[in-house]
Amino acid sequence: MIELEGLTKRYGEKVAVKDLTFTVRPGIITGFLGPNGAGKSTTMRMILGLDHPTAGDVRIDGTRYDRLKDPLTCIGALLEAKGVHPGRSAYNHLLCLAQSNGIPRQRVHEVLDTVGLTAVARKKAKGFSLGMGQRLGIAAALLGDPRILMFDEPVNGLDPEGIHWIRTLMKSLAAQGRTVFVSSHLMSEMALTADHLVVIGQGRLLADTSMAEFIERNSRSYVRVRSPQRERLLDALRQAGVTAVESGDGALEVDGSKAEYIGELAARQQLVLHELSPQQASLEEAFMRLTAESVEYHAHTGTGTPAPPRQQWGESWKKG
Ligand SMILES: Nc1ncnc2c1ncn2[C@@H]1O[C@H](COP(=O)(O)OP(=O)(O)OP(=O)(O)O)[C@@H](O)[C@H]1O
Ligand SMILES: [Mg+2]
Q1: pLDDT at 216
Q2: Among 64, 81, 119, 224, which residue carries the largest CB count within 10 Å?
Q3: Which ligand has an atom closest to residue 32 CA?
């Protein structure tokens, strides 16, 4: 478990992280999201004691990082895959880490095998691709068999097979009851991986909720309808007081009504439907909405542009 309490980091005038309070729980994958510069990496560095908080506190299973007896056996982290001496082999890099932390040599072989680097273990790290470097960083994180794992953008540079592999790895780590805290900008990947989300913007907490609740709260759900009798359908919807917006490809998007209601309404008017599908909002859409709103809220200082308004078919619409 990782517990943050009022965590704040200031760099001169810049407040990178502001009063963050949340708990990362074991047994699930917690996704850590936020736009570029939101303060994710800074937060992760403070969790590992690599940066000192200006205010607030972090606890790793109840203890501050600098008071942990064997830190690598408590928390393993992949921050930036740059902490490897270029002239050192993957094996020697891991062996140094193991020996300086009282971890048996056998564990080096195990983690090399887990991340699929056994065949290139004796090659110098400077010849590694971005993806191989990420795998080596993940091997280092796993070395102490820690109860808590933290990954900052772990799929960076990984190919589709590698992305699938790390997703499976994180799920199995969580299923073993470990705490898994992971940041990523790949929303489609996060949607498949994370159970819980912590979202920050401009260093502040924007959301701390389950994936399902986050999507439901921050996105619009609607029903997509296509009909060859579109104009008549629009008329019927309008008379029933239902708002429809045009999707741009000839279909209509209906807010605030269930598919059953729209289908029955169309049937009563003997209207043909070619499509009637409730739309599952995406994590990306929810994320964009939430973070755009936070930018909009701070519009007097921010530079973000809110999403353009969609074309509304409301009361002003007249049958052509
Ligand atoms: N050592 C530092 N000195 C000064 N400012 C810093 C330092 N480290 C981070 N910052 C600033 O703090 C803010 C948060 O940066 P951080 O790297 O934590 O964001 P992030 O959420 O990880 O972004 P990204 O998604 O781009 O990785 C940024 O405005 C950044 O410029
Ligand atoms: Mg970062």
Answers
A1: 82
A2: 81
A3: 1
- CA–CA distance, 125 with 79 (Å, rounded to integer): 17
In this predicted model, what pLDDT tens digit does every residue of 84-104 receive, in sequence order?
A: 788 889 999 999 999 999 999
CA distance 33 to 31: 6
Strand positions, DSSP E, 211-250 = 222-226, 244-246
Task: Round to the nearest angstrom and report the end-to-end CA distance of the chain.
Answer: 61
The pLDDT confidence band at residue 294, using thresholds 50, 70 and 90, is low
Cα(39) to centroid of ligand 2, in Å? 7
Joined tokens for residue 55: 């205010």
pLDDT(262) > 90: yes
Q: Which atom of ligand 1 is nearest to the CA of 200?
A: 21
Give the Å distance between the CA of 100 and the centre of ligand 2.
28
Which ligand does the CA of 20 lie closest to?
1
The DSSP-derived string for 17-51 is EEEEEEEEPTTSEEEEE--TTSSHHHHHHHHTTSS
Mean pLDDT of 153-179: 92
The tens digit of pLDDT for each residue in 179-194 reads: 999 999 888 889 999 9
Residue 110's alpha-carbon distances to 95, 166, 245, 305, in angstroms, are 12, 16, 56, 49
Structure tokens at 173: 């780590």
Cβ of 156 closer than 6 Å to ligand 1, yes or no, is: no
Give the other-Cβ count within 10 Å of 231's Cβ: 10
Q: Are 227 and 266 in contact (CB under 8 A)?
A: yes
Residue type, 244: A
Ligand nearest to the CA of 43: 1
Residue nearest to atom 14 of ligand 1 (CA): 39
pLDDT in tens, 23-82: 999 999 999 999 888 999 999 999 999 999 999 999 999 999 888 888 899 999 999 756
Determine the distance separating the centroid of ligand 2 and the alpha carbon of 186, expressed in angstroms: 13
C-alpha distances in Å from residue 160, one per residue of 107, 137, 156, 188:
27, 18, 11, 13
Per-chain residues with Cβ under 5 A from ion ligand 2 = 40-41
